[in-house]
Amino acid sequence: MAKTLEFRGIGKSFPGVRALDNVNFKAEGGKVLALLGENGAGKSTLLKILSGDQPASEGEILVDDKVTAFHSPHDAQAAGISVIYQERQLMPSLSVMENLFAGALPKGKLGLVDKNELYAETQKIISEFGLDIDPAEEVGRLSIANQQMVEIMKAYRRDSDIIAYDEPTAPLSEKEIELMFKVIEKQKAAGKAIIYVSHRMNEIFRITDEIVVLKDGRQVTTLQTKETSEAELIKSMVGRDIGDTYSNLRRNTPTDDVILEVRNLSTPKVKNVSFQIHKGEIVGLAGLVGAGRTEVARALFGADPITGGEILIEGKPVRFRSPREAIDAGVALCPEDRKEQGLVMYRSIADNVAMPVVNYLKKGLGFVDRGQAATLAERAVADYAIKTPTIFKLVAELSGGNQQKVILGRWTSEKVKTRLLLLDEPTKGIDVGTKAEIYQKICDLAREGIGVLFISSELTEVINLADRIYVMRGGSISGCLPRAEATEENVLTLAMADETGDAGKRKEGRA
Amino acid sequence: MKKKSALSTFARSKSFPLILILLVMTFITMVISSGVTEGAPFSAMFTDGFLARGNVITVLYSMVIQVIMLCGLGCILISGNIDLSVGGQAALSTLVFAWLCKYTQMPWGVALIITFCVALCFGLINAFLVNKLRFPAFIATIGMSSIYRGLCSVMTKGDNIQIARASFTAIGKTNLFGFLPVSFVFALVVLAIFQFMLSYTRFGRSIFMVGGNQQAARLSGLNPDRVRLVMFLLNSLLACVGGLLWSAQAKLASPTAIIDAAPDMQVISAVILGGIAFTGGAGNLVGGLVGVLLLNMFKNMLIVMGIPTYWTVFASGFVLAVALILDYVSNERRRKALLAASAAADAAEAAGS
């Protein structure tokens, strides 16, 4: 009963963009096929076509060697296809059970919804996953990881023959990832065809059988997982050998001048945080998600109120009441969520670059000097090698990496005079090649004497880039590691250790 | 199956504080308006002033159109849409009905059926604008509202049309037990039916799903456009029924009276007071009913307490503003509690794994 899915000559064009071009491959039942590629390579577009959310511009999809046309997600589901989306598609105000069975609520007497059956069926699925969730709980009240598991259970519930996972593990902890892998193994054994999209190499090598690599909308190669290596995959994804990203960096050298000194900073979510950043230094801020790293950055930027402590910039005490005051003092923040907090998506690159300095680009009666704004944007595009035909392109049309470069370009334009750069997860969701470019750029900025606070959840990145690392836990700083002592084990120990002594209950990191 | 007791659910619901406010207001008005403070016997509280039979009937009558509209608009808001044209639709459909009754010999039952068909066309137009032309519902319906108002004036040149069908107008003045208007009871029955539909039928739940996250609903195989079409049709039909009940009371159709009273705005205010999320996906009609009761009783209380009418308009706006502030505060609390719950779940997991 194994099903097969075949893409034949699939292409997709958006105005001005060729998102997919002649993609051909076959996913067979009882196998897990990995779809690999940088951001913007066309993986998500392909999945949208598969789910019936968007039509392909050309080509056809074959299910069991029969050409199948999808006009809506409903058609795709009817053909036995389920897609688990990277952006969770849940209804937060409704219960877990209604989210799972949306579109297929069990019918009871008089055609009404059979709530007992609904509850029991949902409970059954939750038990099969080995989770502990109340079927009647509002989805919005669940942890993010459990919300993601609800998304995965939705596809499981449909019992589709072809299941696509789009970066499912990003919000999951090790425990849920294990549970999910068990489910995937079960689905594989049942002869289902599985497509698995992920950036995480260890996952790909662990559960997939075959790997299709996409680059710029084209299919670069198809490899057997057993016969390939991480290096080979990265090479085919990037199109070149990036070698050791970190050892090739032109490093900065920290000076002895202190640019930022924080003494006993407290906010509603941060307790007594003290640290220093020198000119030309990259200081890493590590810790688990929710440890208070973002809150420190926001407090320094004047975005959140401070309840106690002191901030000194170049020795002078400052107390910013708004980001405007911070910007004027030479502090810049690249926020965690670039789409929601960093950029105005439907404005041009030029507008986004000029945003913080628009008041300084006045001419005549207070009109904005567009020429000057354009010059700033042109320079940002050149400095950061932003891939775009013009500075008037909407930011929404750029890839994630280029969007991040626009933000960096904004804060490093000559008009802003940034002295202290706060970077909150600057490489989140960005492909390997662009990451390397951004690392180099950060080093370059430090070489110019800017102090950098580098927040990241990716340990290798913090360890290799930072001159010193402060580790946060539960809203406080639990330790500081100089570059020489910065290892994954040391950082994780500081991030997870618990003074109250129940450290044994917690996981000992990935080590 | 883990179930919270009905009582505690109710005490936590948004309607609960509103009902408390309502009871306190009722009591104060009962006391003041009946003259107990000036030496009248206590029994006067239940017979004079606010609770006087004539007054109760007046309040109930004035609410009929709003309760009927609440059923449609409430569902529309839960599905994440809005219809700002129900006042115009109600006015225009009553004019169509009155015109047919006055200038043709057809039985009013036939006129009623024709009027319903006209109302369904209104719903169809709204659905077409939103589903096919992808206008935001707000813009589409506010535009249609002007068109309907204009048509009302064009059709009548500003005059009322009398309705002289005794068996129809009788609906508007029949009371059960001498104080309970039949039309109000009818409105409550309609409300109960719609609440039942929302809570227990597959279509009712799909309204919540589309309102909770339209994209998720679509990707789950539901058809948000179809839900919206049915919602707009039902809503227009209800607007028409509400208008006709109003006409039966007034024995005429007016190009301006219904629109000027802005029952749709009253209902939207009431519904928000009653805890239906403006963003969709949550709420119930019973809460909306409590909101309608609150607004209408408050207005009436000011009248029976002898406060000049031009102050009552101000005061009902004031009450709405206060209620919205309270709503904001409780939403903030709820939002924080939700965040805390989610964060606590994350923390518990981190500790447990």
Description:
- The complex is a heterodimer of chains A (511) and B (353).
- In chain A, strand 9 and strand 10 form a beta hairpin.
- The longest helix of chain A has 16 residues, at 174-189.
- Chain A has helices at 43-50, 73-78, 96-101, 115-129, 144-158, 174-189, 201-207, 230-238, 293-300, 323-328, 338-342, 349-354, 370-384, 400-411, 432-447, 459-465, 488-496; strands at 4-14, 17-28, 32-36, 58-63, 66-68, 81-84, 162-166, 193-197, 210-215, 218-224, 258-267, 270-278, 282-287, 308-313, 316-318, 331-334, 362-363, 367-368, 420-424, 451-455, 468-473, 476-482.
- Chain A is α/β, with parallel strands linked by helices and 511 residues long.
- Residues 499-511 of chain A have low confidence and may be disordered.
- In chain A, helix 13 (370-384) crosses helix 14 (400-411).
- Chain A starts with a strand and ends in a 15-residue tail after the last helix.
- Helix content of chain B is 75%, strand content 2%.
- Chain B has a two-stranded antiparallel sheet with strand order 1-4. Chain B has a two-stranded antiparallel sheet with strand order 2-3.
- Chain B is globular and about 75 Å long.
- At the A-B interface, helix 2 and helix 5 of A face helix 9, helix 10 and helix 15 of B.
Layout of helices and strands:
The complex is a heterodimer of chains A (511) and B (353).
Chain A: E1 4-14, E2 17-28, E3 32-36, H1 43-50, E4 58-63, E5 66-68, H2 73-78, E6 81-84, H3 96-101, H4 115-129, H5 144-158, E7 162-166, H6 174-189, E8 193-197, H7 201-207, E9 210-215, E10 218-224, H8 230-238, E11 258-267, E12 270-278, E13 282-287, H9 293-300, E14 308-313, E15 316-318, H10 323-328, E16 331-334, H11 338-342, H12 349-354, E17 362-363, E18 367-368, H13 370-384, H14 400-411, E19 420-424, H15 432-447, E20 451-455, H16 459-465, E21 468-473, E22 476-482, H17 488-496
Parallel strand pairs in A: 3-8, 3-9, 6-7, 7-8, 13-20, 13-21, 16-19, 19-20
Antiparallel strand pairs in A: 1-2, 1-4, 4-5, 9-10, 11-12, 11-14, 14-15, 17-18, 21-22
Helix pairs in contact in A: 13-14
Chain B: H1 6-12, H2 15-33, H3 53-78, H4 86-103, H5 108-132, H6 137-156, E1 161-162, H7 166-173, E2 175-176, E3 180-181, H8 182-200, H9 202-212, H10 214-219, H11 224-250, E4 252-253, H12 257-261, H13 263-273, H14 285-304, H15 309-352
Antiparallel strand pairs in B: 1-4, 2-3
